Sequence to fold (603 residues):
Amino acid sequence: MSQVTGNEEQAVVSLSTPDGTATKCAGGPYDGWAELFLRPTRAAVATLTGGLAPSSLGEAFADWATHLALFPGSQMHIVAETVREFMSLAGGEWRTAASAGAPEPQAGPPTRDHRFDDPSWEAWPFNLIRQSFLQSERWWDDAACNILGVTAQHRAIMRFSIHRILDMLAPSNFVATNPVLQHRIIETQGKCLVDGVATLIEDWLRSLAGERPAGAECYRPGADVAITPGKVVYRNDLIELIQYAPITQAVRPEPLLIVPAWILKYYVLDLSLENSLVRWLVGQGHTVFMISWRNVGEGGRALDLEDYRRLGIMASLDAITAITGGNRVHGTGYCLGGTLLAIAAAAMARDGDDRLASMTLFAAQADFSEPGEVGLFIDAAHLDFLETMARARGYLDSAQMSGAFQALRSNELVWPYFVRDYLMGARGPMSDLQAWHSDATRLPFAAHSQYLHSLALGNDLAAGRYQVDGRPIPLENIHVPVFAVGAESDYVAPWRSVYKIHRLIDAEVTFLLTTGGHDDGIVSEPGHPDRSYRLLARPADADGIDPETWLARTSSEAGSWWPAWAAWLDLHSSPPGVPPPLGGSGVNAGTLGNAPGSYVLES
Fold:
C-alpha cells in the first residue's frame, strides 16, 4: 500500500514483509505511482511462472555454479563421477555381450517409478537407453548435492529443478526411445497418435472453458459420490454442517466431527459406497458430523484462519452439543483441516473448554520446520509471488496449487498420463479420487497469506507464538488423547513432519504410518489391495523417540488402518446408547435439506 504526502515532495511507501508487518521506506514523489505499476506486473509474472519466484531459482543456480567454477576440487569430483558412471555403463554392456546377450543386472529406478516396468525395456538397445538415463539421474543427483559450499536449500532447489527437467526428457516420453509406444503405433497402424491428438484438443478446449476433465461428470456429488444419507443441520456464511443418519441400533455417545481441508471439496472422505470413510464409521456405530466449506469467491478475500476456526470448528461444536445433548466430541482433521483443529484444540485448552474428547489428525502438520520438498516453495520470494496472485483476485485458485503439487512428482503425476493419453491414445477411466481432485475450490487471500507467513514460513504454531484472541496458544496445553496418521509416500505432509506432534504435546499420542500417499493413504478401506500400516502408542508424559527409532520398533500389519483407528476411538468412548435424532429435538430442532447440501455444489 502506498501513501503520498500532501506536499508531494516525499512519499512514504508501506511494503509488506514476510512476517506480515509493514516496513516504511522514504522515497521520491513518484514511488506511489511506481508501486501501482509494480503490483500488476508482478501478478502477471507470478501467473506466468505458476507462483515460482525466478529470483529464488536464480540464487540457487548462481550459488551452485559459483562454487563449481571457483573450486577445482569440485570440478575434479564431477569429472571423476562422470568417468565412474561411464565405466559402469560400459562394463555392464561388455558383460552382457560376453554372456551371449543375457542382460547384466543393473540398479533399477526408485520403487514408485513405473516408467520402465514393461519387459520391452529389457531388449537392446532400449535397456542401454534406460540404464543410461537412470545413471544420468544419479550423476545429476551427485552434481547437485555434493558441491561443497552450496547451502542446503540451494542444493535441494537445484536437485528438484534438475529432476523436473530430466522427467521431461525421459526416454519413456518419446516415440524414438520408447519401445512400448512403438509397439502401440505398429498395432494400431498409427491410429493411436490420431486419437491422442483428438484427446489433447478435447482437454485443451475443456481447460479454456473452465470445465472439469473428461470423465469427471460420472462422479457428481449427491448422485455418484458423497451419497451417504444425512441432513444439513447447520449453516452459516462459511460452512454447512452435515449429520449422517445412523444405521446401527446403538451408537457411541461421543460423536465425531470431521474437519476437512478447504483446498478441495470435503467428500474425499465420502466417495463411493465401497471406500467412504464416513459410511464405514457410521456402520461401526459412530455418529458422524462433517464440515462442508463454502467455495468462497472474491467477496471472501478478508476471511482469515480465525474466521475458519470460529465459523467452522467452534460453530460446529456449538451445533453438535445442542443437537446431541452431550458435551464431548471426537475431533478429526484432515490436512489443513487438521492444522486448524490443532489450533482450535490449543485455544480451547487455554480457555478451559473441555468439549474435545480426543483429537485425530490425518496427514496434518503442526510443525512446519521440515515440510519436505514442499518447503522448496516456502521462502519470502515465493510467498510474495503467491500472495501477489491471490491479492489480484482476492483468492488463489486451487488449480495453481495442484499444479505445484503435481510438479513435485511429475514422473508419476504428469508425464505417464501425457504418454498414455496423448501418444498412446489410450485414456484410462477416471476414478472417483481423480474426479475429486478436479473439483477445485478457491483459497481466500487473507487465510492463504496467514497460513503461508505465520505457519509455513514462520512456524509460529510449533514455536508457541501463534495467537488467538490476542493471546498465544501453546500446543503443550492439549491434554486429550491424540491419534495421528502419516502416509509413507506423502509429499504434501511428509510423515516425519506429521510425526513431530510427539514433541509438541505431552498427552498420549498414538502414531500410525500407512502405505500410500496424501490421499490414497487416507482413503484406504478394508479390502483395499496392497495396504499395510505400523502403529505405536506413546503414553502421556513419556519420553519421545525419533522417527527412525519408531520405525525400528514397529512391525508392519497387513490391511487397512481404519479398524485400528476405530478400536482406538472405542477405547476412548463411552458405552453405546440410543442414536441422537437428526438435527436434534426441541423447539429449535430441524434440518436444512439432505446431504451433501448446497455448498459442495458451488463451482
